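To the wet lab folks,

You asked to see what we're planning to order before we commit. Fair enough. Below is the target structure as tokens, and below that is the sequence we designed to fit it. If anything looks off to you, flag it before the synthesis order goes out.
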């Protein structure tokens, strides 16, 4: 014979108000983890940015303040990108200037039968810095050729001479020459000074008989 003590077993009662309270509490809404987020990628990114800015400026920051900071950050990024481009490609924003006296052609280039010192002084007096850069480069090739460091040929390119003679200052001198000779870069007295310094670093050891 089975005896049921109903008073001891029936300990649970249904409280509708408590159940409704739990259902309305988002902390107990476990189903949300199984629901698909209907927001777009941009909305998710925007929400993430707003949350980070709220953490940075406090929960009291309103939407207007956050929007102002977003605009400021956006323009700072644009300024940083433009500054980087100007720094890396400084000649990109320089106006091109035509030099009427620069009419020589590459086919006529030679390192023989030229009084380089006299021609360089003449070009300097006429402020023809582009011609000075060219003459310094050709004079350097003449010195290297006379020392049997390179083999001069009229058809060779500057890069070929760089492959024959590995020297940091010669590489810099060659790049400056190519930039001004074939590019739209404007030669200046600064360019001439750089070319003369690199030429001394290349040629002085050769003239002294030292190894380069």
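Sequence we intend to order:
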């Amino acid at each position: 014979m089975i005896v049921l003590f109903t008073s001891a077993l029936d300990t649970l009662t249904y409280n509708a108000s408590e159940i409704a309270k739990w259902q309305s509490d988002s902390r107990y809404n476990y189903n949300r983890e199984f629901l698909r987020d209907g927001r777009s990628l941009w909305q998710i990114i925007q929400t993430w940015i707003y949350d980070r800015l709220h953490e940075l400026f406090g929960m009291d920051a309103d939407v207007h303040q956050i929007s102002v900071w977003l605009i400021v950050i956006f323009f700072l990024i644009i300024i940083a990108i433009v500054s980087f481009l100007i720094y890396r490609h400084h000649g990109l924003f320089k106006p091109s200037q035509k030099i009427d006296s620069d009419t020589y052609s590459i086919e006529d280039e030679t390192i023989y039968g030229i009084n380089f010192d006299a021609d360089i002084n003449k070009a300097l007096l006429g402020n023809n810095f582009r011609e000075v850069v060219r003459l310094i480069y050709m004079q350097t090739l003449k010195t290297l050729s006379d020392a049997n460091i390179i083999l001069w040929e009229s058809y060779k390119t500057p890069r070929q001479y760089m492959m024959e003679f590995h020297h940091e200052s010669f590489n810099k001198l060659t790049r400056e020459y190519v930039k001004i000779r074939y590019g739209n870069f404007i030669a200046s007295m600064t360019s001439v000074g750089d070319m003369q310094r690199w030429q001394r670093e290349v040629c002085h050891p050769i003239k002294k008989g030292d190894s380069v």
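Structural context that might help your review: The two ends are 115 Å apart (CA to CA). The chain is about 60% helix and 0% strand.

Thanks,
Computational group
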